[in-house]
Amino acid sequence: MNSIGILEFVPPAANIIASDDTICEYKVVTFYPETEDLFLRYNWSFPGGSPLTSTKEINYIQYFNQGIYPVSLTISNEVGSLTINLSDSIVVNTCVTGIASLVGNENPSVFPNPFVNDIQVKSKLSGSVQYRIWDMYGKLIYSKVESNKETVIINMENFSQGMFILELSNNGFRHTQKIIKQ
User: Fold this and answer.
1) What is the pLDDT of residue 1?
2) CATH topology match: 15-93 vs 103-181
3) What are the counts of helices (DSSP H) followed by strands (DSSP E) for the chain?
4) pLDDT tens digits, residue range 40-56?
5) Terminal Cα-to-Cα distance of the chain (whole angstroms)
6) Which sign does the torsion angle of CA 122, 124, 128, 131 carry?
7) I want to staple 72 with a disulfide (CB 3.0 to 4.6 A). Which of 39, 45, 99, 152 is the partner?
8) d(CA 29, CA 86)
9) What is the SS3 assignment for 103?
10) Domain boundaries, the chain
11) If you ran DSSP here, which 8-state letter would residue 104 be given?
């Protein structure tokens, strides 16, 4: 017994899905279409993001500056195309905040910056402090908790050159800073 299937093409239909709609500077948002169409071509636009455009189905977009950013997706198949515009899709905030756990309201100091192998972080935070470093793709590459240390040295000798984001957090306090390895 033979069976014959008929494939019917219909105009494209989709929605834009984002992993988050409110983020901090330098964070990454994942975008993808919600659709049942298997034969789509994608043309994304991410003003204010990096990269600015893409033809991939799934995208990892990083936002560096505070603001409200649109997202646009044009999908097409053999029958037609559809453009979806989200004007206020992503809200990017500056997320450096401090509360009473920071003595004297001084931000931590990080030096040297740029650096070659080691960075030194000085802070007046008491108790346990979480130190995290992300690469520019939003991947966590370093995480360590130090307790009651005013100065912490982080060795990044085995990491490639480039820009990273350092975050210190402690009891509701959070400080983020760009660091650059030469």
Assistant:
1) 59
2) yes
3) 0, 16
4) 899 999 999 999 999 99
5) 68
6) negative
7) 45
8) 15
9) helix
10) 15-93, 103-181
11) G
Tokens 């206020």, located at residue: 88
- Provide the pLDDT confidence category of residue 6 given band limits of 50, 70 and 90: low
Q: What fold characterizes domain 15-93? A: Immunoglobulin-like (2.60.40)
Q: Could you name the CATH architecture of 103-181?
A: Sandwich (2.60)
Nearest Cα to Cα of residue 71 among 19, 134, 13? 19
How far apart CA 125 and CA 148 sit, in angstroms, is: 7
Q: Tell me how crowded residue 38 is: count the other CB atoms within 10 A of its CB.
A: 7
The CA distance from 85 to 67, in Å, is 17
Amino acid identity of residue 158, one-letter, is N
Asked whether the bond before 33 is cis by omega within 30 degrees of 0, the reply is: no
Pairing assessment for the beta strands 162-170 and 151-155 based on DSSP bridges:
unpaired
